[in-house]
Amino acid sequence: MRVKEYERKTNETYIKIKINLDGEGNYKFDTEIPFFEHMLSHLSKHSGIDIDLFLRGDLEIDCHHSVEDTGIVLGRLLSEALGDKKGIFRYGHFTLPMDEVLTTVAIDLSGRYHFKYTGPDLSTMGKFGIYDSELTLEFLEKFAMNAKMNLHVLVHYGKNRHHIHESIFKALGKSLKMAIQIQDKNTIPSTKGLLE
Is the pLDDT of residue 188 over 90? Predict the structure, then answer.
């Protein structure tokens, strides 16, 4: 079982999280940020990764530290749970239609970080409750950085801001599901013989 858990306390956030890469997409969240929980539920469900997350942050300021730190910790746990990455498919991609929106996400669990977003300016989409729309980019960047992955997100087109955000998390989940699946337990998917 590729299961990892972690507890992290700073002056800005307290995070307790457990993930299971071989789960069924079950999730339990207690973050006090409803929209963030809604997005993470799509990530969990469509990746098949079980996520149990307790989060408290300095929401009296804003949600930035809470969302950023969750991306950091979740990325680290994913990297640790993958271990030496022996047998994984490594690559994942998915193009997801959601009503008027079309979004593609492609990832490489290469051990090297790169993040690229192309699409509508998420920083101009206002708030979803207490969640600032630009925090989706903050989460994705920190998640990719700490998971040591290439993450490319392309929103081809779309109008509804909720659909745009949701399509990103769903497509990321589908891409992760492909990339983390075990194909051949005896093989590292690289001519180098390792992924780090």
Answer: no
Exposed/middle/buried for 157, CB within 10 Å: 0-12, 13-18, 19+? exposed
pLDDT tens readout for residues 22-58: 999 999 999 999 999 999 999 999 999 999 999 999 9
Architecture of the CATH domain 3-180: 2-Layer Sandwich (3.30)
Q: Where are the domains of the chain?
A: 3-180
Whether the CB-CB separation of 55 and 13 falls below 8 Å is answered with yes
Query: E strand or H helix at 47, and its extent?
Result: helix 34-47
For 147, residues 6+ apart whose C-beta sits below 8 A from its C-beta are 74, 75, 76, 78, 79, 109
pTM of the model: 0.95
